[in-house]
Amino acid sequence: MRCWRRLAAAGALLASLCAALALAVAEHRRPDTTASSSSRRPLRFASGGGFKVALFADLHYGENAWTDWGPRQDAGSDRVMAAVLDAEKPDFVVYLGDLVTANNLGIPNASLYWDRAISPTRGRGIPWATVFGNHDDMPFEWPPEWFSPAGVPPLHCPPPSMSDSDCSFRGTPRLELMTSEVIRNGLSYSSNGPKDLWPAVSNYVLQVLSQKRDDPALLMYFLDSGGGSYPEVISSAQVQWFHSQSQFLNPNGRISEIIFWHIPSTAYAKVAPKAKSEIRKPCVGSINKEEVAPQEAEWGMMDALVKRASVKAIFVGHNHGLDWCCPHEKLWLCFARHTGYGGYGNWPRGARVIEISEQPFSIQSWIRMEDGTTHSDISLSS
């Protein structure tokens, strides 16, 4: 480990942020139809016919990283994930965006914190996939208290052997974060996605094979909903990509499909219970403490999804004070539970769990809390 820089200012707490030497740069992975690799085993339903997925949303590692408070929140997030993983023992984990609070990270290699976010899953040998949220590659925001009386914050550059660029607070772009994750982790099923969709990066499909055959019995689509370095949208180009992939992989809709992205679509705002009101059926959940904060615009993704009877549910994060599922047309719109101790809100932390059964096909979901309790059981099959 080498120290990249020490961040200090008059009257502010001295802190050191240490980083691994230089992010390894590799050629971007070829954008395939699915995020598969010959070195990664196919995902498959278990012998009992089940496939369990835990969703970790809004971890926000690295928030206020220059203080004592920030690292304590990261330790809390470690505890939540460990508790959920040990209680549920999922087959797969989805990191549903905002793994880091990049606007609080004054180092060029935010993959240090990204790596910590995935470490509880990796350490237990569980495969995972990630999508980007609006905070994952936000530009660094100088805290006002860092500025000295002269109006210029002191900057301590790395040793002379480092490049001058290491003295800038440039943040870490999506491509670098994802490339670092994929090339260093054999259990990662994430992908940079097709180049023609960039700057939207985390766009890919994963197939879950039948327990008895080498045919897919479930398709999981991952989409980058923007934010940070570009607007909070799912573009029309991503919609066309979804059309082409779904028609190629599932032309007759025989295979059930579930969808993951970070920022809720405008459809979530339409079906949402009134903010701070009791959640009533057909919606199911435990917290409804704020209004939905949707994407900036709807460019056709919801229209594409509701027309496919094979699409069963969409799962998002972003709103920390919401954890409900509500029906929309013939599919379900679900929030995960705020998992991380970083980010706004003091509601108890937890994670949404999804259990899919192959025969007969069904999707059950519930929320597992840090304290071990569960609640908000719901069937998403109808």
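The record above closes out task 2.4. Task 2.5 opens with a second protein, given below.
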Amino acid sequence: RSLKLPKPQLGEPRELRALRMQPAQEDVLMMSQTLDKLLARDTVQVELIPEKKGLFLKHVEYQVTSQRYKISVYRRYSDFDVFHEVLLQRFAYRVVPALPPKRMLKGVLTSISEREFIEGRRRALGRFINLVARHPFFSEDELVKTFLTFSGSDVQTKLRDAYKKMGDEFMTNRIATQAKEYLPADIQTQFSTSRELIRNIHNSFLKLRDRAEKMAERSKENATDLLMFGKELSTLGSDASPLPSLASSQSTWGTLRQSLKSLSVEFAVLSDKAAQQGRREEDDVVEKLNLFLDLLQSYRDLCERHEKGVLHEHQRALHKYSVMKRQMMSATVQPKEQASVEQLESRIVQQENAIQTMELRNYFSLFCLHQETQLIFTYLPITSHILGAFVNSQVQGHREMGEVWTELQPKLGCLFGGNNGLKPSI
């Protein structure tokens, strides 16, 4: 008996089309970045060019040096301002860090000097340009390259022209119109959860920064106190007026006085070490905290832009569309002039197109938001860099101070009769 083999079902060619390879969705949406990769993209120095005329200059100039492009260019605050403006227009759906204020706020005048304000602004501009130069999408953009490398006379015109040529990211990103296909179904829930988590992280980092600032401030105050302590000992030792005969300890006080005078040198060294410690805490710890805080703040701004901008405009457009539809309905019920009905029809078509574009933009905005959220999480391990810098600054500071104190101890021999200050307490 012959064996019957199963007959294969080939199905329709139409069904085969559905089996075509789907685009690898994760690849486009997920950013395969590590913090080390981001930090290695570029390091940009922003230095103040020494003021040329008088104490208060109308324009402060900065020398901006990119490691990646191996070039230095000169920029004013207004150049940063225009760069920030076009960057925000081009990348409306991404984290664009804010710029520091151009001038001192009226109320602040009393608490900080002009010099401190200018230094604070220089640091903030440095953080801004480094976050931008290391961003996975900005770093490869023409605008960033122009800002970091163009040394012609008018960088502002050059930046504006470059933006006009390119338009915003929605116009140039090849997957902008298909963003919806790549988004997970629960994107809104994911976004809300991440946003809440990032808000809590932001609040914690603000508190950490405030404490680190206080510690740096204390180190500087410690430096002043040590210096004054040494000066006071010196004043005490420099008093050469003769002692009255009734002072029985006259002989020891004479030699003691000489020793006190020389101690001010040691205390000046201690003061110097404490001041260095304060600068280290500021440069290594507070600055790194501020860099991450700037990024977290720009993420918050982006979330607000998404809600107020894209979603708000979308709702307005839908409202306008429904009004037009109602007008159209009443126009067909009560016959109006043909021309006005046709006009209304063409306006409705335009509005439908506008709504379609807005919907696509809305999905693209969500798509970018999803990537920028990943960027925040990619930056989170900077916590270990910050902690490392904090611990190292303390180890170095305490070691250096300890060495000076240790050298100081034997010098107290003459004060305590060779007991090296290890006398039982009084």
